[in-house]
Fold these 2 entries.
Entry 1:
Amino acid sequence: MDLRFRLRDAIFSTPVGVASGTFGYAKEYDGLVDYRRIGAVYTKAITPEPRVGNPSPRLVETPAGMLNSIGLANVGVRAFIEHKMPFLRKIPSLVIVNVAGALDSDYEQVVEALEGVEGVDGFEINVSCPNVKHGGLALGTDPRLVAGITKSLRARTKKPLILKLSPNVTDIALMAEAAEAEGADAVSCINTLVGMVIDLKTKRPVLPFGTGGLSGPAILPVAVAAVYKVSRRVKIPVIGIGGITKWEDAVQHLLAGASSVQVGSGTFANPKLAEEVNDGLLAWAWEEGLTSLEDFHAFCR
Amino acid sequence: MKQFDAEILENRELAEDYFEMFLSWPDGVRVPFPGQVVSFRVDRSITPFLRRPFALASFQRETRVASVIYHVRGPATIRMSEKRKGDVIDTLGPRGFYFQLGKERNALLVGGGVGTGPMVFAANWLAAKGFTPRLILGYRHGGLVPQLDLLPLVRLSICTDDGSHGFRGTTVNFLESLSPDEIDDAFVWACGPNPMLKAAHFWAHPQGIPCKVSLEEVMACGVGACVGCTVETTDDRKTARVCTEGPVFASEVIRWT
């Protein structure tokens, strides 16, 4: 059985990674997880300058999920290289840096700063954050803008380039096609869905800007449908994210057409989720006699 | 910090909707200090989805038994209250900065509601060191006043909003009633609702009395990764994560709003 997945020089040794924003800079989980069983760590979104993030409260729990409004709080690319990369370099997982910004030049700056940095195995471009006013989601809802940013970053990196897509659009596959046409190596989908919780005591939204990003088991069917749709419309690999809290959920993503998956906020409840999903899905594939990603993809064609 | 299955040794009601859960603390898990927290994954259901953080209320070194005092107020804590002796609970901890002594010797410990647990832990911990801490606990009414196991050196003062038990008024009203002698060489440690912590800060700080507060925020990961449980600070950091830079902070570091 070989479920390894390759993007340029990066070989994902297991099909399960940990999603950006849910695993910090990896060191936070040191001592709690076995990094050998995590194929890839997708870092917290990195911007050129440090960002404090949004006012609190930043979190609210919802039925089978949660909303977040973190606002891309991060240390900035310089501190990331100096203080976060030394640990990330030591772990066996691939390190895919999630990149965010307000302007195209922000993304370009981060990718340029990290292109020559040892231990950075690829980039995941966040064109889908619902919690910032500029860039983020606005960028990810227009295929021309997705094409533009992909083209510009492709010219700046030889490393794997993954575009992380938003479900908050009419046709997510249009964005995937735009990314593919300009040389993206893969797309990951989905980022969080826009959601709101209103507090009956204050009669106002709980989160400071009203809406936040919905994640958790509630979004699994939305994510599986997006993976199914996108994987039919592009030839580049699709990385499935959304709603995975057990190995069976990851199997659904792979059967829908994903070549790899990321577990996200499920890690908050269970730090060992990525490992358990990895072990469970490998055992299931073995029992079912599925020995390659092509085998997984054969059923839903 | 470790993740472990803690065996529940006892789970008893202390007052109306307030419970104390006693847990076995495995060898190899660090000894916790007052102010530190654990988070529980109450069960494997997907609603509620997140772990729940609780500050520890006691730790017995000889028997390695820890406890938390919790308020039954939602689906997670209802399920916690249904757990029985012999059940296990997925536990992550101990976590966070704890209350640390300065040079002052006159301990004024202020707690209320779910802030009761860590202040009881702090009071007993100080009493075991030979302090005679004043433990000032506030409740809305007498029915909420819990039965507590306190060492003899702990001086307990109960405050109720309606005067149905002990001092009538808030914990900070009680602080205000203390004589100059009683606040000589004093320090304040506090845990409870934010208005109480804010009032404790604005009572202590102008008089030069060191004040430390333990904060509560909604947490997702509880390990510093998600950056969800932040509070605004007055220092260069601008914000700090309650789970990692806290939960105990010097009160002047917090931007009180």
Entry 2:
Amino acid sequence: MPHTLTISQLTDKLAQGELSSREATQSCLDRIDAVDGQLNAFLSHDPEDALTQADAADAARAAGKSRPLLGVPIAMKDVIAVNGHPLNCASKILGDFNSPYDATVTEKLREAGAVVFGRVNMDEFAMGSSTENSAFGPARNPWDSDCIPGGSSGGSAVAVAADECLASLGSDTGGSIRQPAALCGCVGLKPTYGRVSRYGLVAFASSLDQVGPLTKDVRDAATMLGVIAGEDKRDSTNVPEPVPDYIAALTGDVKGLKIGLPKEYQVDGIDPEVKSATEAAVAELEKHGAEVKEISLPHTQYAIATYYIIATAEASANLARFEGVRYGARVDGASPEKMNRATRGAGFGEEVKRRIILGTYVLSSGYYDAYYLRAQKVRTLIRQDFLNAFKEVDLIASPTTPTPAFKIGEKVDDPLQMYLSDIFTISCNLAGLCGISIPCGFSVSGLPLGLQLLGKPFGEPDLLRAAHAYEQATDWHTKRPEIS
Amino acid sequence: MTYEAVIGLETHVQLRTRTKMWCGCANEYGAEANTNVCPVCIGLPGVLPVPNAEALRKTALTGMLLNCDVPSYAKWDRKNYFYPDNPKNYQLTQLDFPSTIEGFVEFEFGEGIERVRINRAHLEEDVGKSTHFSDYSGVDFNRAGVPLLEIVTEPDLTGPDMAYDYLNALKAILENGGVSDCDMEKGQVRCDVNISVRPVGQTDLGEKIEIKNMNSFSGVRRAAAYEIERQIGVLREGGTLVQETRRWDDVVGITENMRTKEDAHDYRYFPDPDLMPHTPSEGWIAEVRASVKELPLARKQRLIADFKLPSSDAVVFVGDAALGDYFEVATKGAKNPKAVANWVINNLQAKLSEIGSTVADVKFETSAIGELVGLVEGGKISSKIAQDVFAEMFESGKSPATIVEEKGLSQVCDTSELMVFCNEAIEANSVSVEDFRNGKEAALNFLKGQVMKASRGKANPKIVGELLKEILG
């Protein structure tokens, strides 16, 4: 059952000739056939194209080539451009649009030898926390198909947790990798802003978006990050910081590592099971030599409001290009303006429209200073909170989500409640930090829980080291859902 | 009551760069529709802009040519509006931190020199071009993303003619400075004109009326003249003016309302999160400053002052900077710069345009024209022979002295030798001799011409004249 392997397990077997990439890829394809009708993680996939890539990887290996992901099947969130494949952002508005180019991360995966396959489900344009906002139906949590898998990278998390691929790429604007990873029981890493190129990632909120991996364990996250990180001249916001050896950071040793617990995160509404699982996880790290102390992030309470002003403002402009003139599902109208209105009215879902309207409002003449400009100032304060905290500690620990996965449909009529599910993840994006969610237990009802660790800008080595050490000491990450 | 006009101009100028502002597509006019396009400049999902270093450099250079400051911090903003020719439905521009600020342009107007203050020259991107067919419209995105400079004046212009002269001066500065070709035919220069009128003596400005998107300077002049008359007419009749945007109908020669303030766009500007601010270092600014060329007006004044050239010659050299540069090198060490200028303008330029060539291809040494002038002025060759020598120089690249030497073209000054030619001419033209003796001075010139002809132009005409008079007198 090669689809159940981690990347490192598979690459070992490939290297030893125990398995071929074709077998591994076919195994994933069979798994999709078996379970995805129920889970709806994949919007589309092209088995023939995947197997062709697998054969090419096998041939390369036979010719003595060795690359970090050679022959490893990786699924792509439907917001990342893959040349010749659909790019829908789980929206109706893009119609039958196929990307004519590869995102930088896609190129990097290819250079590393990966079998890049499949378009995985998400909230439309990455706007949401449950994957219920997909125009192609919600993805379902493999641990309980009545529950949401989280979002917006819900499909990416489901595909990994249900062993439909070895790893996937997602995007994280306010928690969209970490939150579904937590709710599905896999590892989700949001790199530091500027660490990974955004070229070819369809923008939701440009100053917050980052591409990152969802994987079955921390080692795989380190491998994936090592492949996709690095300088890209096509992204001006990309930081030309050298890429360290992330695998080398996995020493298993957290002695002396200082972990902060923000007192402002002790808020009402945290599920007691989540709370105790987080406390137990921190205690485990402490047991292995980490030092734990309370810290303060005084502007925490403004994070969600700040986020929803900045993210929606940027989105209102980023999504303006979808109007049916050059591509996508055009709805005709008697004038360009009528065509725009008809196309956007028919093509966008409710949540996307809500955010475009919000963003348009906060940028409007007379409101800009009160909303957008003020939000930018608060954002600076939030970042300052973290930079101050990181003078005292190396990492910050918290639950990834305040509750385990909720039921499909439970919060769709209450957007504000839905927004609050991002409370622990959102500040990381506002401050431009890196963060990871790793499995740290299960609720009584059998749903996975996640521990979030946040690191300083470009502090991924520390982040991965602590996450890996915790993983070594526990076996939560080895648990797999039974999919009936 | 007497009214006066107050005019400000916003001039959009396409920068001359190899590639577009944010991508590697060619910045090239006239290609087949939608062939100079890529995912970036047609705004496909997922793409990001990367600033064109050459455009940033030329923007700073333009600022310097317009006597602007180049701040150490500039940023990009999104200007949001929906239009089919606008691929992202926002245009990248510079709202509150432009790349260059606060300069001025000086230009000749009437008898004197005028100075118009420049508020800013900021960088933005051009949009595509719509074409309307019988039952559909098309957009050509070749122009989308071409770097576009917006040069904004303060309201310092007082009339249509001044606006016209300012625009021509601006064009000359930008062309001469190498930042834009300013080709009006290719739409590389477009103007918005802001006009208000007020009673003479009033310091507050009247209601500002903007005329959008003019693509010729004469159109600007006519539209401004019309609009000033119209506005004064409205006020004289007791009407009021409201802030509005108007369009110029060049065929009918009138302006008409496009939109009033109430339905003005809310562009919802905000800083572009895809681009970092441009923070030029002092070193970079100094490097750009090193490539600033002398302004046309300054050069004209200098050519007149330093070389005692007439204004008309100076204008030629300013208008054709390469020719002007050639002149300045060619005249080095020459005693008579005006004579060198004559050769450069009347002969060299004529020859070059005849064969469609440029000064870069001239075969002879740059010092040659000065030498040729020296030969004429030293009496070594006649100016007629000099014409032949020049033609030979232009053909072969040989020096004038070599040509004179090789072809034996030196002027004959030896009286005994010339005497032979003179006597021959007198003998062969008895009628002219008679005429001269009867007081017809012109007859002497005829005889002189015969001598010159017989000597194949080499005879010194001055000595020949004296000899003929002597013989016949």
